[in-house]
């Protein structure tokens, strides 16, 4: 499966199959949430939240790819990501794009 954030793939012609998406809502455990809130007092990178968001993007991408595979897609083009805070310490991440099938 080819995944790109452009609306084309060099050397490939394709037909669009439709929109595919994947999403997840992730949160950190209470202990990490408390330690990260202390970090906001002194500043710096919130590594636990950074890790949480990286994991969430990976899972959303995996779910989007699985949906594309169910459609018989060879690739997903024009991939985009969106995120939103759901509550303190929890975020939704969505990956979406257009599933395509290569043609000769």
TrEMBL record:
SUPFAM superfamilies xref list: YbjQ-like
InterPro entries: UPF0145_dom_sf (IPR035439), UPF0145_YbjQ-like (IPR002765)
Classification via HAMAP family: UPF0145
Matches recorded under PANTHER family: UPF0145 PROTEIN SCO3412, UPF0145 PROTEIN YBJQ
Homology family: Belongs to the UPF0145 family.
The protein, known as: UPF0145 protein A8806_12050
